[in-house]
Amino acid sequence: MKKLVVCLAVFTLAMSAMFAGAAFAAEKPYNIALIIKATDSDFWQYVIVGGTNYGLEFPEVAKVTNYGPPSEADIDKQVAIVEDVIASKPDAIVIASTSSDATVPALERAVDEGIVVITIDNKVNTDKVHSFLATNNTVGGALAADKMVEAMNAAGIPLKGKVAIVSAMAGIQVLDDRDAGFTEQMKKIAPEIEIIPPRYVDNDIIKALGVAEDLITANDDLIGIFADNNHTGDGVSRAIAEQKLEGKIMVTAFDSDPEEIKALESGAIKALILQDPYGMGYKGCDFAVQVLDGKEVPKYVDTGAVAVTKENMNDEEIKGLLDPMLKKKQ
Q1: pLDDT tens sequence across 117-130
Q2: Of the candidates 174, 225, 183, the residue with the CA atom closest to the CA atom of residue 43
Q3: 161: how many CB neighbours lie within 10 A of its CB?
Q4: 248-274 burial by CB neighbour count: b if 16+ within 10 A, else e?
Q5: Per CATH, the architecture of 25-135+279-301 is what?
Q6: Which residues form a coiled coil (predicted)?
Q7: Would you say the CATH fold of 137-274 matches that of 25-135+279-301?
Q8: Is the peptide bond before 69 cis (omega within 30 degrees of 0)?
Q9: 137-274 maps to which CATH number?
């Protein structure tokens, strides 16, 4: 009887090892689903350019298909997209999940079904994913504060008065981290400045414009606004430009799109904190392929944050970050 038990145990272990090894026994080219947060934002289009370029460069290795809801506010729609993608049985999913929690059950099920899952931009609250590539948003927020104070000093604005935060959405971890990093750094380097709590705009440019106008009207001593993504940057910079307040209210913002780039050139925005959305899409797909090939990849990769001002925006090493469409292969 003991021999039988031992034999069964050995057989079970052998079968487990066999199935573990076969979990990613897919044929090339691997089918990779790249799921972004929203199709209405240039930032996420830059992610798509990165992922698409990877597939074009290595057609024998990967076929990349893109998915995403219209807006970052469409969290339920993104969850439904994830469910549909899992049902189509891709070899891998590379996803920027808007919510840290809403997609977790589906992503955990995907891993259990043998699908490689790589997350980018926003951390999801599970340890099951194979890798996570993202900006350290707390550091990026602090960098935005540094650049704002530099702009104030350059404009001869005393470090007294109020600074506001216009945030795309409430309860989104990456945005919370940016706002917290900005706030803590401002307290350190400009302790006499009062920080107005974040105003949320549902990731809507027109709402961001309206909130910025309200803040300007209600606060005569407003000397700065931090916009924590490209849509808020677009809205805030419009308010500054329309009222010709480039020399009075210093604006720093996250990410880049054509409107933010124009605002940087005009001085409505003093600095943009750039992530690497192209790299997230490209490297995310590459990491998926490496895992499918049986290779090890880091659990977390900091994709970096760079401050861009009018002075350095034309540097060669900056151009590709400022406008990743320049890298588009088709």
Answers
A1: 999 999 999 999 99
A2: 174
A3: 18
A4: ebbbbbbbbbebbbebbeebbbbbbbb
A5: 3-Layer(aba) Sandwich (3.40)
A6: none
A7: yes
A8: no
A9: 3.40.50.2300
